[in-house]
Amino acid sequence: MEKPFAITLAVNSSLNNHTGSWRVEKPEYVHRMPPCNSACPAGENIQNWLYIAEDGSYEAAWRALIIENPFPAIMGRVCYHPCENVCNRAELDQSVGINSIERFLGDYAIEKALTIPAPAVESGFKVLVIGAGPAGLSAAYHLRSMGHSVTVRDATHAPGGMMRYGIPQYRLPREVLDAEIHRIKDMGVTFEMNTRVDDVHEALDEGFDALFLAIGAQLSKRAYIPASEAARILDAIKVLHGVEDGTQPLLGRKVVVYGGGNTAMDVARTAKRLGAQETIIVYRRTRDKAPANDEEITEALEEGILVKWLSTIKHVDEKTLQIEKMALDENGYPQPTGEFETLEADSLILALGQEVDFSLLGNSADLDTKDGVMPVDSTMMTSHPGIFAGGDMVPADRTVTTGVGHGKKAARNIDAWLRKTAFEKLENRDVVTFDQLNTWYYTDAPHIVRERLDATRRAKDFSEVVKGLDETNALFEARRCMSCGNCFECDNCFGVCPDNAIIKLGPGKGFEINLDYCKGCGICVAECPSSSIVMVPDK
Amino acid sequence: MSSTPIKFYQVGSFAIGNRLLPADDRSIQSDPSRTNALNSGHRACQGCGEALGARYALDAAMRATNEQIIAVNATGCLEVFSTPYPESSWRIPWLHSLFGNAPAVATGVAAALKAQGKSDIRVIAQGGDGATVDIGFGALSGMFERNDDVLYICYDNEAYMNTGVQRSGATPPAARTATTQAVGENPGNVFGQGKNLPRIAMAHEIPYVATATVADLRDLEAKVTKAMSFRGARYIHVLVPCPLGWGSQSCDTIKIARLATQSGLFPVFEAENGEVVASTPIRKRVDVEEYLKLQVRYSHLFAPTRRDDVINHLQSIADKNIARYNLLIDESESI
Fold first, then answer.
1. CATH number of the domain where residue A514 is located
2. What value of ipTM does the predicted structure carry?
3. Which residues, listed in sequence order, are joined to residue B154 by a DSSP beta bridge?
4. Which residues of B touch A491 (CB under 8 A)?
5. Are A17 and B87 within 8 A, CB to CB?
6. Is B269 helix (H, G, I), strand (E, B) or coil?
């Protein structure tokens, strides 16, 4: 180039000057663990399906969700949503209503009759699942997705386990349950109902390569209560089962329920719906010590159910029973006070917890049991090779979601065991905490409360109590997600870099750092709302 | 407030972009094909607020004028770090003359364009606070008074940073600089001195005056775009934190600008023809201490002995701004 007089250097762009050499630390995009995901007993990737739902791609969101859990419509009704309890948004305003969005997606899929394709390749392996409850069905779904031939056996006449015979219809309408189970059937899973398995080994010898046991915990715990012969004492599980079967037990006008767990709440609310004029729950400890979910307690109280906290039942007669008041000692344990009260009761329903009924397994004595449950190893395998177990019969929380999680975990390990490989779980313990987020950027948006059926109306029949969200509400709620630890393409890093050193790769592709020019100032990290960029030493 | 807040979750219009918004509603900076008027490879320090503010402002001006702009630059960091001969980071026609004459040169460029009938080409003059409130003040006042068709943008980092952090007429009270050391009974810059240039500009009754910060991109872009819709003299004063001169972490540049606005120390407003027409309300109010404690230039207010008297004095300045520009609005109306 011809240069003007006295000019010795050609004019050039500053792009020649690679300021990246100043840097000692560099930013790096990461995927961290959102607290919701880490708390989900079914291992759902909640942040991911919320992200997909945020732009209205409900089917895609549903498909991402069912990779981990085939029952969003059920979960959206019965899950006690531990995810919401740990949601970082709670510290800003209120938790994201994850459960309500999950239900919306589940209902959307049912409404649109979305189906799950049968596996493209058959593995040739045959797996038997014993028990058609949440754990069994979840295992069947995942095993079938992996290409295995799956048979589910259950002694009852319809699949669902405690979802059908334990959870009342006002919490889980049966058409929802049926729709989500039917989808699994349509994948090619064989259901053999009304089929009790008496001998596990015999069943295995029928030509199955592996077996998943999920018989649940169906035996009500008994407590010794002195009672006159005419006293009417029932057990909660049988009452709930009977309601489902149409063999409604006679409860009388005044019903007392003994226990403080979810089953106690369910059976008390069911008794009210069956026509009991007065339902009283008796529980020996206080409300905050009760194992029942707080929402269920609240809903029960709203429906007019009375609770005698800190009380034990001492004696039961035909029309009355005697309770003793308790007081908490210095260690927080209830101790008798010697103060008694008499309640009128036509019947007493015991809801004191459940035990595994190992007699269902018959001639399976070589399977180890301990403390009334069946221990399993980290792959969910029992003491017998090829026999796996999960759900309420193994030591864990007894909730639907935990069961679904067990089914998934067992399925993945059964698959690995069959193929003689090992299932490697990707561990990510880097859970995002609230103080790591830059919450300035999130708009203020309070949580939408799901409409509930009026309390006076709902105690009369079995209509569903909690209503769903409509699309506008669900979308709003999904967009409250702060996407902890995962980029949601807000473009902050791309915009705030003083050196234009962030490359935007386009929708869904995220960003890259241009290390030629990044000076390592760290503004992108500081201004990232979701803590999905970190500074790392540059080598 | 010039920008229209978008009540749209999850980040609405607070973040730079938002994948949930139509492309037209996103900020200019979120566009992968933005012009990058100030290109990579410039020699500004890590975390420079001025480099950021200049790119934000000029990209917006380019978008508003169909890329028909000429920029005149005063001497200062922006000039030095962007154009060490023979390299330049500018991707626009760009002119540098002297420290104090940028407004006069811009006036001349505008006059020349007018004489050639090129009314579609617009002129921007820009400089730091030293060039603006001190050295070029006479020329700037003349440009205002004649209502020449120039947008003047001042990137205010509150001292002469390029030459080694000397006090300017925009240095805030109590701040330590090389020439206002933290010694004696009243350490740092003295109270009661300095100039408030946005108010001086307003006193000229020019068509448009606005303040902005690098912490609110949407607002800055809207103000530059709006300024380009006017003819005549216009002035935008942008607060740009300086990690070197303020003694702050390079990663905190935007946070500090945000705290300056949320404490009330830096009021964000706009004025037309000498009257304030809008101000950006404080969203999450903080005490001035939150802003001060991140900066070494104020560290003498906290150690070895805490100077509550000085901190309270600075708080009273913030409180006065809040009242004067009506920065606190009813919570229910905020977004």
1. 3.30.70.20
2. 0.94
3. B127, B237
4. 15-18, 26-27, 29-30
5. yes
6. strand
CB A489 within 8 A of CB A441: no
CB B243 within 8 A of CB B159: no
Q: pLDDT tens, A429-479?
A: 799 999 999 999 998 877 767 777 777 667 777 888 888 888 888 888 899
Q: Containing domain of residue A374, as a range?
A: 126-219+358-418
B96 in contact with A, Cβ within 8 Å:
no
User: How many other CB atoms are there within 10 angstroms of residue A443's CB atom?
Assistant: 18
Instruction: List, in sequence order, every beta strand (DSSP E) within A482-530.
Output: 502-504, 511-513
Domain-embedded: residue A101:
no
* Number of structural domains in chain B: 1
CA atoms in the 13 A half-sphere facing the CB of B285 = 15
The pTM of the full predicted model, rounded to 2 decimals, is 0.90
| Segment A275-329, tens digit of pLDDT | 899 999 999 999 999 999 998 999 999 999 999 999 999 999 989 999 999 999 8
Q: Which CB contacts under 8 angstroms, 24+ apart, belong to B191-200?
A: B191/B313, B193/B169, B194/B133, B194/B169, B194/B170, B195/B133, B195/B137, B195/B169, B195/B170, B197/B129, B197/B132, B197/B133, B197/B154, B197/B170, B197/B235, B197/B237, B198/B235, B198/B237, B198/B269, B198/B271, B200/B141
Tell me what the pLDDT averaged over chain B comes to.
94
Report CB contact under 8 Å: B55, A498. yes
CB contact under 8 A, B40 and A516: yes
A526 neighbourhood in chain B, CB within 8 Å: 251-252, 254-255
CA-based max dimension of chain B? 63
Q: Within 13 Å, how many C-alpha atoms sit on residue A450's CB side?
A: 23
Q: Which is nearest to B47 in space by CA: B81, B87, B92?
A: B81
Identity of residue A152: V
Residue identified by tokens 């269920």 is A296
Count of C-beta atoms within a 10 Å radius of residue B85: 10
| Chain A residues near residue B44 by CB distance under 8 angstroms | 498-499
* B300: containing domain: 23-333
Q: Which of the residue ranges B20-24, B97-101, B109-113, B281-285 would you say has the lowest mean pLDDT?
A: B20-24
CB contact B87 to A (< 8 Å) = yes
Taking each helix axis from N to C end, the angle separating A471-478 and A46-53, rounded to the nearest 10 degrees, works out to: 130
From A445, A449, A479, A485, select the one nearest A93 (Cα to Cα). Answer: A445
- Do A136 and A214 lie in a common domain? yes
CA B52 to the chain's CA centroid: 10
